[in-house]
Structures are given as structure tokens and as C-alpha cells.
Batch of 2 targets.
Target 1
Amino acid sequence: MMTHAEALIKAKQLVAKMSLEEKAEQLKYDAPAIDRLGIPAYNWWNEALHGVARAGTATVFPQAIGLAAIFDDAFHYKIADTVSTEGRAKYNEASAEGDRDIYKGLTFWSPNVNIFRDPRWGRGHETYGEDPYLTGKLGVAYVEGLQGSGKFLKSAACAKHFAVHSGPEAIRHEFDAGADKKDIAETYLYAFEMLVRDADVESVMGAYNRVNGEPACGSQKLLVDTLRGEWGFEGHVVSDCWAVRDFHEHHHVTDTAPESAAMAINHGCDLNCGNTYLHMMQAVKDGLVSDETITRACERLFATRYRLGLLGQDSEWDAISPLENDTDEHNELAYEAAVKSMVLLKNDGVLPICGCCAKTIAVIGPNANSVPALEGNYNGTSSRYITLLEGIRQGAPEGTRVLYSEGCHLFKDRVSNLGLKHDRIAEAVSHAKIADVTVLCLGLDATLEGEEGDTGNQYFSGDKKDLELPGDQKLLLDSIVAVGKPVITVVCSGSSLNVSEGNAVIEAWYPGQAGGRALCDLIYGRRDFSGRLPLTFYRSVDDLPDFADYAMRKGRTYRYYQGKPLFPFGFGLSYTRFEVTGASYVAGEVQADVRNIGERDGECVVEVYVKQNGSALAPANPSLCAFGRVAVKAGETATITMPMAEKALLAADNDGKWVKDASSYTLYIGQCQPDTYSLELSGTKPVVLEIK
């Protein structure tokens, strides 16, 4: 692959031919053409969080939090590789028609590797959950899949939002995220460092907030000292959209737009998503920015375009045609992802459904026939959505009668504006009484939880005020359960909700275009559940610190939480049973035998946690340090080998330095966390290894 150094040489030669004004114009996301140099216009803004987004038809995979629940970095790479194929197909198609609009480029502002530290955060479903190692490992796989391994970058990935960024959304433009050096190193920068060092991510996007007083997109500590200085980052930095404007309008660390532009670019923010860099030439006139600084930023941006093969080179990716987008093969991959991502949280024996016994099924709830409940946010548009209702109707055994009722609105107290309150509850209860089993589809969608400004939940700007079902959904749930017949509760959400009622409970996330088909095959037992929770499901916000408090040691996430959760990080049930035995640790790798002692074929997620004995610096609870997924047929045994986290046997000290602080280490190799409650829920026990 063309190196950064090789690309930079070419970029320097090209940029040297530009005037200072032309260079400055290239620093904005919608960079204009320079006809005299044969440089076409280029729009840097594109998204590919779980499929190519916002540019027409593309395969829609499960939302990022659902992909995290698969706990499989190799599978994650395959999805990212597919996304980049579709991205190239769409870019080649658009540019051939002279279309260089927003969302048509090859610089994808994905993945989001912020830590989902608080379940109220509306954008948490864009992340890979609350664990830094899981986030980093999946982020590396996604970057490598997007960027490819050819002569040129297949597409350019972006690690965002750098850094210490995870809500609240309502105050993100003026918020100062205070965090100590230990938390910054151990939690908030951990995944970013992996993406830079291990995956050579091409770009990094700054965050809206300040971090310990410095705006993230103009931070000496983050962008200069850490990113480029300590980690040796060689790509380009882009601001979050209109974040530089926040410097003077909300953070008040500058007084004018030229001052804000100067602060950002002088600290290494090369590209402005927004329009504050329109003031760059004024900043030069005011003596705030040097010609050399503008030249340097411009060179970095053109180096990326050279690495992508966009400036007159013949790229191996140019032959990807529109026929390689939205294919049957990609649809099957989306289906596999949905199957692997859904998490069975509770099952008293009602699942799998017996087709010969359940002749009538009621499918009820505001998310039963909802396309938004499949999509999440930052999504593309599928040509082949299968809602939960449609999946069950299409896949139920022949002769099954499927009844449907919306049951209630997603968040209002009535479906019809002219109706009385609770105007669909009676219909739903009637269907539940007639049916042999009810599939109750509840939860949220991205109109409620998401980014500030993008949601209908304006009062909380996309965040949640609590962990309860909105509107009439709790009333609907209680009413259907009270009927006394079997209820399978299916929750579509991107975050934890306090829902445990029903004979079975399934966390379906936002499962993508094939979500309905996947759910049907799972509840009828044609496929086995294998997803695991990438975040803790709490019982109440009373179990959480203040939303704006970024200190991890106050009980944040499974690594520090001391209470009893509703469902713990790493938990998930299956139809079959696995036994982990014969574990060993050699030279940074954990190996174990996984035997399927049940009667069904399935896939087992093996989780390895480390406890640093005698350490005053390590997290309070054992931390995830390795994981893997293995398919095992009933009665058979498979061996799995898992590389352990590079820093698994180290701890961050109060200066943010990684040190060896333990006298010995205990490894727990099993199917969940090693705490008593997780083991009780899962009915398993781990292999315990003591190492020095």
C-alpha cells in the first residue's frame, strides 16, 4: 500500500503549485475544484457506521452496538470489507456521472470508538459498548476492513470523536469533560491508540466538548502531544461538524471566528467540517496563522487523496461496479449479523416456539412493523427491509395464523390523534387472548435516542431521562403479561432498558435490513442465540453517577460497578449448552477447549477476564482481556485460541502511565463475567488460571 511518506511527497509537489488562497479553500469539507491543476472537487463528508449511509441504496447492517454484541473481530472485518466494497461501488458510480456531492466520497467518518460510559447517552448505540478493549479490537477490525490491503486505500476510515466524549448531548457544545490522567489513558484514549498504532487509521475526528479546559478540536494535549507526538499519527485530523465555531460561540476560549480557525489549525486540525475555516485568510492577515501551517494541513489532505488513488492514478478499486452494491450475498451477511447479534436475556422454556403447538401467534407493539426500528442512525437505505412482523409472517410454519396490533404509539399516549388515551391496548389484549403465544415488540428507535438535533426527543436532545419504556409501552407490556399466556418480549434499542417481564426477553438492538427474518429463525429454533451484551443493563438511573461526571471509579461500567445489574456485561443465553475446559496461557495467548454438551449446534462466545491481584491501580472488577467466537456442533469439541490484550497485565497509574502493579494475575476463561450473579444467570462456571 502507498505509504504516508510516499503520498506526502506527491502531495507536497502538487500543493506547491497552489496559491495560499487555493490551499486555504481546500481545508473545508466541501473542497472546490482547481481546474488549472486538474483537481476535481471533493466532499470529505461521508458516513459508514454500519453500511454506506445517506447516499441512497446500500446494505443496512445491524447498528454498531449490535455488531459489538457479536464479539467477533474477524466477522467484523468481513462486514467492514463489504461496506467498503459498496462504498467504492457507489463512489465509482457517482463520480462517473460527475456527482461529487456530500456522502459521495471515500472518506468515511467511522467508526465511533467512544466509550458508552452511561446508558442515558443517546449516541451510545453508535459505539461498540462500554469496554475499552472490546471497543478497540472491533474498531481495529473495522478500520482494516474499510481501508483494505491493496496498493491504494479502499476507503479511508476515521476514529471519532477524539476524545473523552459520551454525553450529555444537550450541553455538548459548551461542556468541559473533566477526567483525570488515569481515566483518560485507561478508558477514554485506549481504543483510539489501538486504531492509530495497530490499524493505521487514516483520519481522526475531534469532539465537540472541551477536555480539561481545552476544546478537543484545538487541544495541545490531545492533538499535538498525544496523537502526533506520542502515537506518531501520520494521517489527517478533521473537526466534528461546526465544532470549531463552538470555540467562540459556546466554549468562549476565543472571541472571533478567525481566532477559532487559528486555534484549531495551529493545533493540527487540518480539515474543517463546518464553515469557520472560511475565515482562515483573515487569520493569516491578523498574524494568527502562518503560511506554513496552512500548507502543512493542505499537504496532509492531499496525501489522503493520493493514498485513495483519487488524483489520476489507476486504482485496483476502480473496477468495482454498481452491481457490487446491494447484492444477495451482502443481504445474507446482514442476516448472519442480525442472527449473531441478538441476545437472549431470559427464557423459561417458551423458546424455541413449537410450530405444532403455536398455531396462532400475536405480533404486537410499536416496533413490530417499524422500519426505523431496524435502521438505527447514520444508516443507508435498504431495498429489502424485513420488519419483525414481516419476518414472522413469512417464516412461521405453514398454517400458522399471525395476528398483528400496533398496541400503542412508540412514545405518545395514543395512536390516533382523535382517539382516547390507550386507543390500541384493547385490540392488543384481545389478540393476546386468542393467540397461543405473543411476540411483543417494544423499545426505542433513533427518533428517540440519537444525536442532538437529529431526534424527536428534543427535551433531552437525544439522551434518555431514565431507563424505562416510553409512553404507553409499559402499560402495554403489563396488560399483555396479565393475560397469562406465553409472552416473548423483543426489545429494539441501542441502549439498556429496564425490561425483564415476559417468559422470554430478547435484546434485538436495531438489527438491520434482515432483522425480521433473523428474529423468526431464532424464535423458532432454526438458529441458536449467541449474542452477548457489550454493556451493562442497569435497573435504574439511581444506580448511576451524575450523567456529566466522567470519573470511572464512581461506579461506571462493569469494571467499577459494585451493584447488582438487571443483566450484566458479557451475558447472553443459548438454546444449547457449552463447557469450557482445558484452558492454558502461553506467551500472551489463551487457548481453551469448548465442548457443546447440548443437543443443538451453536456458536459459543468465550470471554477471558483478568484480575490483577494486589494492585491498587487496576479496575475494581476483573476486566475483559480476550474474547473469541467458535462454532461447535452438538456433542463435539473445538479449540479456540485468543490473543490477550497487550496491556492486560498492566494498569494505568495516576499519571496515565502503564505500569506493572500486580503481584500475580487470575484469568477467568468462560462464557460470561466471573462474578456470582453472571455465573448464576448463565448456569456456567469458568476455568480459573493463576499466572505470574
Target 2
Amino acid sequence: MRSPNGGSRRGVATWSCFLAGLVVMLLSSPCLADTVSRTPEQMLRAGERMYRQGVLENGEPLRAYVKGDIPVPGTAFTCVSCHLRAGIGSVEGGVYTPPTNGRSLYQPVKKIYKGVPVKYNESPFRRPAYTDATLVEVLRSGVDPEGKVLSDVMPRYLLEDEDAELLVTYLKKLSSEFSPGVSDTEIRFATVYSEDVPAADRDAMIAGLEKYISDKNDMAKSYRRTTTARDRLMARAMSTSKELESRRLTLSRWVLKGSPDTWRAQLEEYNGKEPVFALLGGLVSGEWGPVHRFSEENRIPCLFPNTDLPVVSDTDWYTLYLSKGFYQEGEAVARFLNRRDETGAGVPVLQIVRLSREGRALADGFERTWSSLGHEPPVTVTLQEGETLTGARLAALLEREKPRVVLFWDGGALIPQLRELGSLRQQPQSVFVSGRYAGEALYALPEELRANTYIAYPYRLPGEKVIEPMMKSEVRFRVDDNRIAQQTYSLVQVLTMAVMEIKDNYFRDHFLDAIGMSMDRVVPLYERLSFGPGQRYASKGCYIVQLKKGDGRELTKMSDWVIH
């Protein structure tokens, strides 16, 4: 029997089954299944990945063109590289990069952006508010809502409709609401310390932070009391941020008690009761890891905790450290040896490591860097707590391994073992130790061992003049010898500029962006503090020094500032 259109019922049934099967197959395909089941959070994360990494939801790189017709991968021209993490934009080298966050894109620009020398006539000039459609258009073609063509510095992205929707969804959410810890009247900060830290160190840190908070609030009061228009204009010009006029700063103390295993729960409780904009400083016994993970997972900036045992990571964002700590000393020794060995033949290295947190960090920094520079791993001998190397064992190691270099990653027990080494007939070419780990014991090094003992030293040398680079003049600091006080001073220098530079954009990511774009700082403890976009360690180097002959404490530089 035939159907009215001439086909058989069997044919119609077969075609219907085919269509049904096709629908089932399409709905069960990975792409459409994800579209159907994708949550708003998944859409944001997919858009975030496109913005920050230049990678599509399917794992492929975004495709783009620059200079009109030059194809480039989106991974090389990410949004974040110019517009920064928070999407607030930047001005660098006379090039103005406009904001790309939802609060800015979906509002008209009514006034010309003043006070910035720009090379391109894009966002500093008037434009209407973007819509979803015009935002997709500018991403694809570089044409803004007013019909102006943006500079060819801006890539043109080849976006499918679905990918465009994901990116637009993220941009609308990006920096659209102020971060937790900010109200109409205050910006809340906190500092974290464990109850068992030395009271002198704790008080040195707290005193520096509270003085900064007090000074800022007193300045704000003074500005609010100004009555003449001239004084108020001057106050605004000096502050560059309405924060000094309308919001006071507060500092809470988050005291951690008991085992580090319980710290995370305590931190979550503190943050649940009174969220803060950022954590300042911090001091705990042992490793900073538990606080680091809390900070990263809750997306709370943590600026310069006082620790020699930071979490060394290339991907984490929210915790900024003064340096990589002990890891950085091992790293610097590896780079120094690599430069000194000009033959390229490799350097036989024996590494003697105390099985402590400090010893492991030093060894890890050396081993990773040494291997990355193309060298064979060192021969490693580990020492348990309380264990020492006898002269006989040292002699056997030297005879068997024949190292040109011996690394002694040990603390206060270092000197007796170096004496044992010095008494042997067969000697390595050089011995390296950690100045920070050895501490005061280092200055007991006998004169006969000083000539071939090299010290990783991560600070300015004692008594060295500090020169302000802009004024070319000596800078004198009123900071005592307490290292925690000096580290807190370094924190305050960076924090002062960052708070001023956020300019009413109270977003945590923008706070970190502002630090990443800040100028180098001159401080008493470190050779220099410098950041760049995305960088997480402020002091990036280390000296290699030796003790001068005799029994004194004077140090001699054997290297420039070795940069990691």
C-alpha cells in the first residue's frame, strides 16, 4: 500500500525511524549534551578560560587575526594580557587599554578620558553602551557601537555563536560587583598568625600593619575636614582614590590555634563571620601551605606572609610572597654554578640534605633548576634529625663520587660537619651553604674553610647603602633589626601604592593587577622588590657571598644579584 505522496508506509516508517535516531544521536553527542546540561557556573568557567587562557571550551585555542590579516592563536593574544585579570584595563607605553568588565561595557562613555596620552582613538572617546550583539561584533570585527574601527592592536577573534555567548556571559559578570570585605564605609583587611609564634615577631608585624591602617584613617579624616575647594582638589590629587575620603580601613586578627590540620576550618569560620578584602602579612609556625590553599580556593588576596616556606607554584594567583624562601637559595646556587661552568661539560655535584622542611626546600630548588638547565641530577645523601656525617663517611663519599661541588643544606649543625670535611685530604672545588638556614652559626666558620665556602644570601648585605633610583640619593629607613618588622615595612610600601591605584574599583583581582603593574620599590631588606603582570614573588634574586678571611662577620659578594 502506498502513501498519498507515492511512498510506501514502510518507507515512511523507515524515514521516521532514521530521523528519530538522528535526533537521539545529536542530543547524545558530547557538544549538544554539554549545551543542554551546562550550568551557569560552567558557562562562566568556560568564558573565564577563553578570557584568561585563549582556549575554547573544547580545548582548542581561540583563532584570531592581528594587523588585519595575520593569523595568530588566541593563546598568544589572550584578553587578560592587555585588559588584565579584573578587566579594568591599563595604560602602558602611551597605549590605553579600555575596561572590559560588565560595569564598564554596558554603560555609555560620556566624557573623553582625560590625563592619559594615548595613541589610538578607541575607548577614551565617547561611545554608547554595548549590547550583547555589539559586543560580539567588536570582538569579531573590531568595530565599536558607534561604528569606529578599533586599533589593529586589538585582535579580531573568529568566534562561533556558542563560544561568543560564553565569552559575553563571562564579560558581563567580570568585576560587576565589589568584592567581599568592601562596604560603603570601610575596607576590611585581616592578618593571620598562629598562637605559638614568638611574641616579638608577632608584635613587630602587628605594629607595622596597625600603624599603616591608623595613618591612612587619620589622613582620610584630615581630607574630610578640608573646607576649601582648593584643599579638596589637592587632597584628591594626592590620594588618587576616593577611598581616602569615604572609606576607613580596618584590620582583624585571625588567630590560629592547635594543629595545622584544623587551621582550614578556623579560617573558613573567620571568613564566614566577617569576610575581608585581603589578608595582609601573616605568621605561622611551619609551612604557610594551609593558609595558601584557603586563600587560593576562596580567591582572597594574601599579600606577603612572613614565611621562608612558601608554596612555589607557576599557576596560583592570590598569594603574593616576598620571595620563594629557601627554595630560592637552592635555585640561585644552581644558576650560579651553571654560569660559572663555562665548559658545558657538567658539574659533578654531591648534595647533603638535612631531612627538615628547610633542607627539602633548598634541595628542591636546586634540583629542579639544575635539571631544567640540562644537568644530571646531583647525588643526594640525606641526614635524619640528630644524625651527623663522620669524617670516614665523608671521605668515602668523596672517593666514590669525586664531586667538584658539595652542597651542605643544613642548619646549626653545619659547622662541625664542615670541619670534618676540611680535615680530609681530598677536597671538592667548592662548598655551598644556605646563609638563611645556617643563621648565626655561619659566622663560626673557621678561616681555613672560608676560601672555598660559598653562601647563598637572599638579602642586602649588612651596612649597604640604599639608593633611591629616581632621586639618585641615599635613602635612610627607620627600621630596627627585626626581620619581621623589615618585611612588614616592605609590605606597607607595596600596599600603599596598590590601595591608591585601585581607584574606586574594589575588586580583588584588580587589587592584584595594580600590584603587578606597580613600580619597583626600594626597601632596606631586599636588593629590590619588583613585579610584573601575573608575577607572584617580589624579591627574585639572591647573592652568592663569602666570609672574608679572619674571624669577622664581613661578607664579600661573589656574584651579582642572581635572578630566578
